[in-house]
């Protein structure tokens, strides 16, 4: 009888150990909607506070002591998925892409603000359209104080600009020209060639003119001033415009502006010519 009791206790202890040692495997693969594996996705078991990361092939494997679990899968750029399942199970998890529209970013590091002790003027898109009908860039800038521009030819390519009496005539380098904060003057001698920027006004979103020595953090020796032209950003809606202008001296000008709109909610193109 004593031997029987000992054997029974050993059997019960062994059965209990096996019951506590039993585990279930939760494994599978995490992919996107195109069936491409997602690397570094997090699989988290909420009841046990344990988890795993997917490999470069999107694979994962977790051993848990529960038959029913609730898991959560998350990855950067994808929607978080949560589900309750029964184990063991080998599962393919598909995550949907999620896109976050970022606000428009403008290059403004080279532009003065109200608190900056610098003499400057700004032209908005509306100002440019009002002043720029059939006119060259130096002529448009004449609408601002201490700036005088004139067109020395019928096409507007041979123009001249003065800021506070400093002229860019005869190849002088008294005025700095920048496009989106990037110097656009000749790198060798600092001269401006307006014929290179004949259509720049058509695609400009705003223009700022700083009179006198500029406060831009560039090696800009021009004493007359600095001109910074910001291009108009691409629009989120697809569309376009065609503008025709005519004038005396057989002047004709056609401006075409096309916008692709957001493509796949990721990027957009704009064309002006």
Topology:
Blueprint: H1 2-21, E1 24-31, E2 42-45, E3 50-53, E4 59-64, E5 68-74, E6 81-86, E7 89-94, E8 119-123, H2 125-131, H3 137-141, E9 147-151, E10 159-163, E11 166-167, E12 175-179, E13 182-183, E14 204-211, E15 225-231, E16 239-247, E17 251-259, E18 270-272
Parallel strand pairs: 1-7, 12-15
Antiparallel strand pairs: 1-4, 2-3, 2-5, 5-6, 8-14, 9-10, 10-11, 12-13, 14-15, 16-17, 17-18
Question: What's the gist of this structure?
Answer:
12% of the residues lie in helices and 37% in strands. It is mainly beta.
Verbal overview:
By secondary structure, this protein is mainly beta. It has 3 domains: 2-94, Carboxypeptidase-like, regulatory domain (Immunoglobulin-like), CATH 2.60.40; 102-233, Beta Complex (Ferric Hydroxamate Uptake Protein, Chain A, domain 1); 234-273, no CATH class. Helix content is 12%, strand content 37%. It contains 3 helices and 18 strands. The strands form 5 sheets. It has a 5-stranded mixed beta sheet. The chain is elongated, with a radius of gyration of 34 Å. The model is unreliable at 11-21 (pLDDT under 50).
């Amino acid at each position: 009888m004593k031997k029987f009791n000992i054997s029974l206790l050993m059997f019960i202890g062994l059965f209990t150990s096996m019951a506590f040692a039993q585990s279930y495997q939760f494994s599978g693969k995490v992919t996107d909607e195109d069936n491409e594996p997602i690397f570094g996705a997090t699989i988290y078991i909420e009841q046990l506070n344990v988890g795993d990361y997917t490999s470069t092939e999107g694979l994962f494997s977790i051993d848990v002591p529960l038959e029913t679990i609730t898991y959560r899968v998350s990855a950067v750029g994808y929607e978080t998925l949560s589900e309750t399942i029964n184990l063991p199970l080998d599962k393919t998890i598909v995550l949907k892409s999620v896109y976050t529209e970022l606000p428009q970013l403008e290059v403004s590091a080279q532009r003065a603000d109200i608190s900056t002790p610098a003499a400057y003027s700004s032209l908005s898109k509306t100002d440019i359209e009002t002043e720029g009908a059939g006119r060259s860039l130096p002529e448009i800038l004449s609408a601002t104080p201490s700036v005088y521009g004139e067109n020395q030819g019928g096409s507007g390519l041979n123009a001249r600009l003065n800021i506070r009496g400093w002229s860019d005539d005869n190849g002088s380098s008294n005025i700095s020209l920048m496009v989106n904060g990037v110097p656009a003057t000749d790198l060798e001698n600092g001269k401006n060639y307006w014929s290179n920027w004949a259509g720049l006004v058509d695609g400009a979103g705003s223009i700022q003119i700083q009179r006198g020595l500029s406060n831009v953090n560039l090696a800009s020796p021009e004493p007359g001033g600095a001109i910074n032209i910001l291009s108009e950003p691409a629009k989120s809606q697809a569309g376009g415009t065609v503008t025709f202008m005519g004038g005396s001296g057989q002047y004709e000008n056609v401006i075409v502006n096309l916008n692709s709109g957001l493509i796949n909610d990721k990027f957009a193109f704009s064309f002006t010519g």
